[in-house]
Amino acid sequence: IYSVDEESLSNLEIIVPHALADGFINNKRESYRFKFQKIFDQEAKQDVVFDTIAKPVAECVLAGYNGTIFAYGQTGSGKTFTITGGAERYSDRGIIPRTLSYIFDQLQKDSSKEYTTHVSYLEIYNECGYDLLDPRHKASRLEDLPKVTIMEDPDQNIHLKNLSLQQATNEEEALNLLFLGDTNRVIAETPMNQASTRSHCIFTIHISSKEPGSAIIRRSKLHLVDLAGSERVAKTGVGGQLLTEAKYINLSLHYLEQVIIALAEKNRSHIPYRNSMMTSVLRDSLGGNCVTTMIATLSIDKRNIDESISTCRFAQRVALIKNEAVLNEEIDPRLMVIQLKKEIQELKDELALVTGEQRTSELSQEELLRLDKLIEVFLEDNDPDNNLNVGADMRKIKYCFNHMKQLINCSKIDKKFLSQHNSEEKDTNKEVEEEELKKLQDLLQQRNNEINILVNMLKKEKKKAQDALFHLNAASSGSTVLEQSHSVNLEEKESPSSCSNLKEAKDLISSVHRLPFLSRQTGGKMSLGCQEAFEIFKQDHADSITIKDNKQLLKLRFAEAKCLGEKLNEVRNKINHLKGKITQRQFQREALAVSSPSEELNTFDPVEEELRTQIEQEKKSYKTMFNRLKVVKVEIEYLQLLEEKVSMKMQKDFEVWWAEETMNLQQEKPKMFSSPNPASVYPQFLKSPDLPTTGSSETTRFIPNEHATGKNNSFTSSNPPLKTRTSPSSSITLTGDSHADADLLAFMKARQSILEKTG
Questions:
Q1: How confident is the model over 119-174, as pLDDT tens digits?
Q2: pLDDT at residue 699 above 70?
Q3: Distance from the CA of 258 to the CA of which of 187, 426, 567, 674 falls in 20 to 30 A?
């Protein structure tokens, strides 16, 4: 049961009788009283609602104030019908079309001002904003519409990105935009309403007015809000997409209620506008610079009585909020620019009248040259009391300051550049010197390693020469004391092996003179010592015989391939010659047939048949030799590949050996470099017949015996020949043999020369 005060139409009383099912003891409240500014019954007409609610707000908007009208209530209670209207009758038009009609009528009547009108239509569906008036997506799906996002400036003003403002010059254009937006709204059928709007929609009218000749513009906006209806999911029993939509709708309405409660409290410092998109958009409407009117729609029915009471309570909370609406006036920036330009020109004219000079915006070229000269004189003058007088002209003063600033900066830059350049040159020279020093150190280390390796190799060759000399002396010690010439001849006849060993010593000495030749052979890629070591290493390598055999076999295969190629050319020429004979024979037979028609042309020709037989034989021979040539070619390629592999393997083995020798020499420094005196390093190379040597007791020595006559013509041995042996520490002396002595002395001089050059 509900009742409305008929006199004031502002008091509403709802009576809820106790139900018998609740029992005799029931303390529930039965009567609910609410007071509003105006209460409309179910039979109220749309024009009455507009005149009472929307018309005062529209008049405030035309005067320059912001306005908002929004409808709140449960689903199916008539919010959309009140805001937008019905589509069956013209008299069912809602607040939005009637407001548009009223505003444009007033604009046409008022000719004292210039008006500009724009409209926008925003839909908030599942907390996402969409522009319903986008011209690129007319009557399209909701997913295709551009999404609207909220942006906030430092002054906490809300700006909606991607929300279009469509200009409407008359009522017809505005209504067409309204109908376009309504066709894009999300509507669904629910148990409470056959055409329930599932989103919040905000239709905004932007009006700007200005009096002719005035720089003041008034800007105002009117929000017409149709909120989605709240519903109890437990009562409606919806599911799926409808359930998701109901969740978002109830959540946004819950945030709206939180904002309303916070605004109603006097000492509340924080208002939760940012909880939802709808409260962010309606920030000014709810608690700011706006004239706001709320329409609460009720569904007076027994099953909806709880929702109706909740709506009334919410409306009373909204009524407690007080907004301070301010006239929105601002100065037109274009007119302001015009006024400022006019004022500047007037000031210039006054200044020119006082000074007697007509000033331009920029200094002339003559004035600039004059100022440069004054600045130069001022800077060169050493008098501290001297002043730079350019007159009471700010342009000249600014130019002088800027010019002096540039001069100071240029001098600083030059000093900085010079210092940087000098430091860079020093760093560069230091880096170059360090790099050169490092290169020289590396080269010196490499040469030392090469010399040490060559010395070790020459030690081995020297040992071979010692063995050869030892065998030679052992053979001579067994004979009697003879003349030097006779003994030499006798040793050459009786010991041919000693001669071969002596020849090896000669080869070793002559190898010193072959170093430049080896350097030219290797193309200069290796150093001199490395080339000599590689030649010796290659001779002693296990694969040297294989390389020689492969080279010999490769030479034979090349000769065979050359011979086969010549034979193939001969056979090819012979086949071509036989073919030419057959062609000539055929021409002769054809000529004979023409001259003697009685003879048949197709008769068997034994000469031609014999020529064809020869061609077949030559072809077989050609094919046989060609197959053999292919086999030889494959064998040549294989031998070349094998030779290349063996050469690469030998080179890698040499590199490994060379690296090992270098490491050993770096770890253990040879004792021969510990003394700077060459005589102490190689004493065996510096012995002579006039300087006796001492060695171990087991060392065999051959010392020339001087007779009274001064002739050195015999040798004596201090130990028996059969017990002689040479230890690693023994020294080598001259043997008395002229050929052997000459070879050893040459070897000693060559080694001494190398040591002096490298030391």
A1: 999 988 888 888 888 776 554 566 777 888 888 888 777 888 888 889 999 989 99
A2: no
A3: 187
∠ Cα 256 227 105 (to 5°) = 120
Q: What is the pTM of this model?
A: 0.47
**What percentage of the chain reaches a pLDDT higher than 90?**
11
539 labelled as ligand-binding?
Answer: no
The answer to whether the annotation marks 75 as part of a ligand binding site is yes
Is 476 annotated as a binding-site member?
Answer: no
Was 204 annotated as part of a binding site? no
Strand spans (E) along 313-437: 329-331
Give the whole-angstrom CA distance, residue 731 versus residue 686: 10
Element (H, E) at 13: strand 11-15
Give phi and psi for 188, each to the nearest 5. -145, 160
Residue 701 CA: distances (Å) to CA of 140, 726, 734, 745, 748: 121, 10, 10, 18, 19
Tokens 């030391």 correspond to 759
pLDDT at 684 over 50: no
| CB-based contacts of 482, cutoff 8 Å, min separation 6 | 490, 713, 714
- Residue 428, marked binder: no
Q: What is the pLDDT of residues 181-213, one digit of tens each?
A: 887 776 544 545 444 567 888 999 999 998 887
Beta-carbon contacts of residue 304 (< 8 Å; ≥ 6 apart): 74, 77
Specify the 3-state DSSP secondary structure of 693.
Answer: coil
Contacts of 317 (CB under 8 A, 6+ apart): 257, 260, 261, 264
Residue 32 near residue 16 (C-beta atoms within 8 A): yes
Determine the Cα–Cα distance for residues 717 and 738; give it in Å rounded to an integer.
Answer: 19
Determine the Cα–Cα distance for residues 562 and 545; give it in Å rounded to an integer.
26
Residue type, 528: L
Alpha carbon distance 698, 300 (integer Å): 139
Q: Check whether 74 is labelled as a binding-site residue.
A: yes
493 is in an annotated binding site: no
Question: What secondary structure letter does DSSP report for 261?
Answer: H
**Is 77 within any annotated ligand binding site?**
yes
Terminal C-alpha separation, the chain? 128
Q: What are the pLDDT digits (tens) for 260-319?
A: 888 878 777 888 888 888 888 888 788 778 898 999 998 888 788 888 888 888 888 888
527: pLDDT strictly greater than 50: yes
How far is CA 74 from its chain centroid?
58
Which residues, 6 or more positions from 504, have their beta carbon under 8 angstroms from its beta carbon?
Answer: 464, 465, 468
Radius of gyration of the chain (CA): 61
Per-residue pLDDT at 295: 92
* Separation of alpha carbons 614 and 577, rounded Å: 11
Cβ partners under 8 Å of residue 279, min gap 6: 252, 255, 256, 259, 272, 273, 286
CA atoms of 285 and 263, how far apart (whole Å): 12
Q: Which two tokens stand for residue 34?
A: 């609410």
